[in-house]
Amino acid sequence: MISIKYKNGENQIYNTAGHQLKGSMAEGLVGLNPKELLEASLGLCISITMTRILDRDGIPYDDSGVDIEVVANKTECIENRFTSFSVSVKFPELDPKYRKKLKIMVERGCTISNTLRNGAAIEITERN
Predict the structure, then answer these.
(1) Cβ–Cβ under 8 Å, residues 97 and 72
(2) Domain 33-118: which CATH class?
(3) What is the dihedral of CA 75, 84, 117, 49, to 10 degrees?
């Protein structure tokens, strides 16, 4: 669970371990804005999924060779939402056949990408 507390004009983001980071209202400010957090969530899920698969399969890799960039894209004249995500993955040095298989497994195994791809119901309730 994530908790957002708005205090003294700032959004503070907490998990069960405590305060983790500051939320920002726009790009370029201290902290991460909602778009950046969404991009980070997708990229982190892909990274975790990929490294877990590599570890499970006993494939040695240089962890400095894993690099992921994510951009959330909006299409003009579409409702207020992101319409696509561009994900660029620098894989570690791997056999080309395994790299192709790994890409498919990561696409299928990342919970965040599956959720974004297929949508999810959101219910807002009032707390006391």
Answers:
(1) no
(2) alpha beta
(3) -160
Burial class (CB in 10 A: 0-12, 13-18, 19+), 21: middle
Class of residue 127 by CB neighbours under 10 A (exposed 0-12, middle 13-18, buried 19+): exposed
Radius of gyration of the chain (CA): 17
pTM: 0.90
DSSP3 helix / strand / coil % (the chain, rounded to 5): 40, 25, 40
> Which among 71, 61, 68 has a CA at the least distance from the CA of 46?
68
Domain ranges of the chain: 1-28, 33-118
Q: How far is CA 26 from CA 22, 29, 31, 65, 117, in A?
A: 12, 6, 9, 31, 25
Q: How many CB atoms lie within 10 A of CB 50?
A: 22
pLDDT in tens, 36-66: 999 999 999 999 999 999 999 999 998 887 8
